[in-house]
Amino acid sequence: MIQKPKIILTGDRPTGRLHIGHYVGSLRRRVELQNDPSFDKIFIMIADAQALTDNADNPEKLRQNVLEVTLDYLAAGLDPQKVNIFIQSAVPELTELAFYYMNLTTVSRVQRNPTVKTEIQMRNFEANIPLGFFCYPVSQAADITLFHGTVVPVGEDQKPMIELTNEIVRRFNNTYGEVLNECEILLPDNQACMRLPGTDGKAKMSKSLGNCIYLSDPKEEVEKKIKSMYTDPTHLKVTDPGHLEGNAVFTYLDAFCRDEHFERYWQDYKNLQELKDHYTHGGLGDMKCKKFLNQIMQELLEPIRERRHYWEQHIPEVYEILKKGTAAAQQEGQKTIGEVRRAMRINYLDDAELQKEQMLKYTKAE
Questions:
Q1: Extents of the domains making up the chain
Q2: Which secondary structure element, helix H or strand E, spans residue 41, and what is its range?
Q3: Is a pLDDT exceeding 70 seen at residue 133?
Q4: Could you count the other beta carbons within 10 Å of the beta carbon of residue 65?
Q5: Whole-prediction pTM value?
């Protein structure tokens, strides 16, 4: 049996700078996977066309943020020698494939998608949903399958998208023949990273809510945001027992803290569990915990800030990276769309057998 190539496809909408929710949700895993020899290709997409579905009246926002996201990718440690970073709108085959998939998907199926429901409510689209936005799960299926993606490292909220993608793949293959691959989701291995809350304790870190710590935030800004982070509103005195549930500081510690951080920054404790036990029994103030979290976050973000500063001084080189990655994506897309057209038997201009058959048909008729 021939082993199919293992290919990663993932990406982000360029609606602003990336934050630590993006980092723990999938970006950190991408950096790790680029060094995994078991993967044959890695495509990382800047999903500008998808972002237009709810930013159609403000394309300048995306125009500026394509560069911001690319800088964040490079700053986080993605290596352009190992991954292909490309711009979605520069690969027209993605749009063509999405159009074909729309014939294999029903409106009711998209309406049942819980992520779509949530996104519609967040954007107040209930009364007037842009068609492009409504169809973005189908577009996302095209993004994955055009590159024969087999592994998609994303956050938990993308599970329904992967399920729909695989449904479309099965429908296509059953209708036209085995052409496309099903894919699997690769979730963060730390439960706290599944859906990192905002600094205000709200369920999701969001640019629009202003509760993000960005990868490019200066040291002082990170410290300021951590100092104001939501903890336990009932923990009024140091002697009061503290609660961990809903406490953003401890959720972040779950996501980022390791035992060696205690050796470096807080030797009163051996591990996070000891710290939690002290906090829940009482006698430990929130500011000490925030100071510890700040030290951890600064250790994580400082090399990211340094790399970003380097790339900010080399913008022409950044655009060359985008051009090279996009060219690789275009080449892959053209190959796949050719396979799709042949399977669907709509490759009329390239099908010599069809042309010969029709020529003979009408020659005999005379």
A1: 7-195+314-356, 219-311
A2: strand 41-46
A3: yes
A4: 22
A5: 0.91
Res. 190 pLDDT band, cuts 50 70 90? low
What's the pLDDT score for residue 1? 43
Of the chain, the percentage scoring pLDDT greater than 70 comes to 97
What is the spatial order of strands in the sheet that 84-87 belongs to?
A: 84-87, 41-46, 7-12, 151-153, 184-186
CB atoms within 10 A of CB 349: 9
**CATH of 7-195+314-356 among 3.30.70.2190, 1.10.240.10, 3.40.50.620, 1.10.520.10:** 3.40.50.620
* CA–CA dist 52, 58 (Å, integer): 8
Residues 362, 340: Cα–Cα separation, whole Å: 29
- From the number of C-beta atoms within 10 Å of its C-beta (0-12, 13-18, 19+), residue 248 rates as buried
* Cross-strand bridge partners of residue 9: 43
Under 8 Å between Cβ of 93 and 333 = yes
Burial class of residue 225, CB neighbours in 10 A (0-12, 13-18, 19+): buried
| CB atoms near residue 265 (< 10 Å) | 15
| 192 has pLDDT over 80 | no
Q: 298: alpha, beta or left, given left = phi > 0 and alpha = psi -120 to 50?
A: alpha
Q: Regarding the domain with residue range 219-311, which homologous superfamily does it belong to in the CATH classification? A: Tyrosyl-Transfer RNA Synthetase (1.10.240.10)
The pLDDT of 180-192, averaged and rounded, is: 83
pLDDT in tens, 160-175: 999 999 999 999 999 9
